[in-house]
Amino acid sequence: MNEDPVAAAITSRRSIRAFLPTPVPRETVERLLDIAARAPSGTNMQPWRGYALAGEPLRRLSEALVAEALAGTPVDSEYRYYPDAFFEPYLARRRKVGWDMYGLLGIARGEAEKMKRQHAKNFDFFGAPVGIVFTIDRRLEIGSWLDYGIFLGNVMTAARGMGLDTCPQAAFAPHHRTIRAHLPIPENEVVVCGMALGHADPEAPVNTLVTDRVPARDFCAFLGWDGA
Asked: Any idea where the Nitroreductase domain is (predicted)?
């Protein structure tokens, strides 16, 4: 029996970190975002905003952000993504995915400069032909951020359904000042994340990374079935 196409799109999604230069038409990107915008949101507020870039605008922004990252220029995010100190089981999961990825790239522990250069590739959208910067009105509350997460999940799932790949990138948030210098983002909007969009490079070792997932029985209590 063939796998359900929605399940196939979800389970085949990975964070791709090397893209082919194959262009993606604007019509395709717009259709993708139209589909994703069917995400639910509290009282249909639809809190998502986006700035999709290709060609020269993408190149200019990428060059500025890569230069800033490599220079080690101090930056600051407008929101907190991670806790100040990691704890289990999250610390172990974070470490494993990091070392699994660096292992595929041939980067050993302690090779700080190589790690820095790999991180800087975020800001070139990993070579993707399309980069999207997502923002939200800073006056909105946590409920709208929850809605935003559903929307972003829709973007990535719909992309797989269209034969495209993505990488969601919170790394963009601390660089909001440089991003604002290149994009018409008003002050009342917070940079949530960036997202690379395109076709995965099948020859790139980093794209063979498959991250672990905890099974539902380990994170969900099932009540009301036989034996429960």
From this structure: 10-199
Direct distance between the N- and C-terminal alpha carbons of the chain, in angstroms, rounded to an integer = 31
Residue 51 pLDDT: 98
- 3-state secondary structure (DSSP) of residue 219: helix
CA distance 90 to 157: 24
What percent of the chain is helix, strand and coil (3-state, nearest 5)? 50, 15, 40
How many whole angstroms separate alpha carbon 91 and alpha carbon 224? 33
Are 123 and 171 within 8 A, CB to CB?
A: yes
3-class secondary structure, 136: strand
CA distance 49 to 34: 12
pLDDT in tens, 5-17: 999 999 999 999 9
Q: In what order do the strands lie in the sheet with 165-169?
A: 49-53, 130-137, 189-198, 165-169
- What tens digit of pLDDT does each residue of 18-28 get? 999 999 999 99
pTM of the complete model: 0.95
Check: CB of residue 101 under 8 Å from CB of residue 206: yes
Whole-angstrom CA distances from 198 to 22, 73, 132, 211 are 7, 29, 11, 20
CA distance linking residue 68 with residue 111, whole number of Å: 20
CB 208 within 8 A of CB 104: yes
Number of helices followed by number of strands (H, E) in the chain: 8, 4
Q: Provide the mean pLDDT of the chain.
A: 96
